[in-house]
Structures are given as C-alpha cells and as structure tokens.
Amino acid sequence: MTSRPVASNPAARTAAEEPSRYGSAATSSTHPPARRIRTHHLREMKERGEKFTMLTTYDTSTAQVFDEAGIDVLLVGDSASGVVYGHPNSIPITVDELLPLARAVARSATRALVMGDLPFGSYQASPEQAYATATRFMKEAGVAAVKLEGGAEVLPQIQRLTRGGIPVCAHIGFTPQHEHALGGYRVQGRGDMAARVLADAHAVQDAGAFAVLMEMIPADLAEQVTRDLSIPTIGIGAGSHTDAQVLVWQDAFGLNTGRLPRFVRQYADIHGLLLNAARRYADDVKTGAFPGPENTF
Ligand code: KIV
C-alpha cells in the first residue's frame, strides 16, 4: 500500500479543518468530560433512592448521543441479533459479531458505563468458558461490565467472573436466549413461580453480581426484589419500582415499526423522520435539486 505525502500536498487540509464524512469518535459537546459512571455509582444511586437509566446501543453515533443525554449505562445487547443483523431472535448472534459493536460503543462513550451482553452459547457450558468470553469483551471491546442470562443455573459463572475481576449483571425473569425453553415471550414469575424469581435474585446477588436485570415479571414481584436486594435492579417490563429502567432504543425511539411490547413507551418517530428525509433526498436527486451550488466545488 502506498501512502500519500499529505503534508506536501497544498490541497490537503488538516483533520481539524476537514469536516469528517464519517463522524468523530469525540463527542460534539463543548462541556468538559463528565465523571465516568462505575458500578459503585449505580449502587450509591440505589442507596440514595435515585433512579438510573440504561439504553441498548450498538454504534458510535447513538453512543455519543445517549452519552451526551446522560444515559448512565449503555448495553450492547444481544438484541443486536435482531435490530442490527436482522435475525428473528437473539439466539444466532455470535461473540465475533457482537464484539465490534461493543468496541464502537465503548470507544464513543465518555461518561456512561458500557456493558457487553454475552451471546447464547458463549458462557453456559462452564465458568471457564464464561471467563474466556467475558475477557474478550473487556480486552478487545473495552466494556466495563458484562451481562449474562440466568439465575441459579449460572451461579458458578457469576462467581468465576466476579473472582476474576469482571463485574457481572445477571438477567432473570424472561430471558430471551431461553425463548424456546420458556415456550415463547411470556411474563415470568406469576403465582407460585414468583418464589423462583425471588430465589434467583438473591442467589445472583450472593454469587457477586453487581446488578440484576429483570425482564417481563409482575411489578409487585420486581418491587419486592428491589426492596430485598442491596444491589441495583434494572427493569424492562417489570413495573416502575426497579432502581433503573432499560429499553431497546429502536423500540423507544420509533425506529422499529410494527407491534411493540406493552412495556415500551415510544418517545420519537425516527422511522418516520428517516423515511421522510430519504424520500426528500431521492426527490432532490431525481429532479436535479441536489447537489446545489452550495454543495459544489
Ligand atoms: O439484549 C438486550 O437488548 C437486552 C434487553 C433486556 C435490554 O438484554
């Protein structure tokens, strides 16, 4: 590969003069960098009765926006399987597919704690397998914590990671990687099954998890878990009494269309905005209105 002598090229502009076509890894904010959120800050927020926020994030642009908005935790979720790679569920995504997304998010967030999700099949076999996968997320992607799905059945994994210096968030209740075993997307922990969710929550805390994410469980059960545990609880479809909330951003901001789960509130219509912008662009190109003189050298 040849390299061009940039400095001797009179037409060359410095990086500072040239607006990047590909965005920038630095945030556009002029504010001084905020203090990095760490796991102990989340616990302190719980102790103060202050809620924290979490969104899924899969790329540099949204990482910068959510970080600037003050979202406390960015989860590079295995939901990327669907929203990034187009699979019908979270089962097919691999570690090698999720790692580059996690790396982009970790590079781009200056304040938020970035958490990587361990894909299906990358940690269940043994504590050593879990440690090897989580280590890749920390070393190759630069995440500050990992999430894995399961309660009692993954305690050895949580203990191994915690002992090895890897903060772990356990995901209990409805666990999408177990969709087939659970018989589809359904609320967990109703009636007699509440005891099992409660036991899982206590067990993952005792094993060393720094937080527990609860998906699609009754609100009163999530409230009880939140009261019982000293570690923070994060809810998705678990009512309003958890210490934090998380949503998949494409659901929350309206990039995903179609039927949304009941636990989602839609804060924007990004699909509509993008559709309109893309149509206007296409019209302008076809009619010759773009590029105009101001876009032309
Ligand atoms: O992968 C994911 O997006 C999740 C959700 C619960 C937020 O785990």
Question: Oligomeric status of the shown chains?
Answer: single chain
Which structural class do the helices and strands define? Answer: alpha/beta
Order of helices and strands: HEHEHHEHEHEHHEHEEHH
Q: Which overall shape is indicated by the principal axes computed on the Cα atoms? A: globular
Instruction: List segments where confidence is low: pLDDT < 50 over at least 5 consecutive residues.
Output: 1-19, 24-29
Output mean pLDDT. 91
Polypeptide structure, described:
37% of the residues lie in helices and 13% in strands. It has an eight-stranded parallel beta barrel with strand order 1-2-3-4-5-6-7-8, surrounded by seven helices. The radius of gyration is 22 Å and the shape is globular. Helix 2 packs across helix 4 (95-108) and helix 5 (127-141) packs across helix 6 (155-163). With 297 residues, the protein is α/β, with parallel strands linked by helices. The chain has eleven helices and eight strands. Bound molecules: 3-methyl-2-oxobutanoic acid. The site of 3-methyl-2-oxobutanoic acid has 11 residues, from loops.
